[in-house]
Write a structure and sequence with these properties.
Layout: H1 2-7, H2 9-63, E1 69-70, E2 74-78, E3 83-97, E4 100-112, E5 117-122, H3 129-138
Antiparallel strand pairs: 1-3, 2-3, 3-4, 4-5
Length: 141
Amino acid sequence: MKKFIVENWFKIIIVLIAFLVGFYLLYFLFSVQIQQKQQQLLESSIKCDQNGLRFFEDYKTKNIPYHFLFGEPTYHFSKQLNTCLISINYQGSTHESQGRTIYDISHDEVTDVYSNKTLISTEISERDTQFQQQKQVLMRE
């Protein structure tokens, strides 16, 4: 074995260098792909925020009377669904009592911004634990 190493030391070094260069090239290619995917996800998230804001403004004017009280919407680009989701919640008033507006409608939903389809919704969001769990999963994916 010693004789083999002594006689072929140059070939062994060349093979080791080729192996290290190949390993580095594979690492470099994978890291570039990962960076590209992260960049695409960032761009999709930024686009989702912009489209979600437009969707929300349009949603408020078309669907809900002006006297409803809206919470702050949240936007999320779902990698798994490959779409932009918006979580919208609002309370609606049906009457006033003693000079105060009474809010007796509570609505919460998660909607696909691009298809304008509601994925989940509830009218009793605080007490609907199944809805809250589904919402957390959707808005984290």
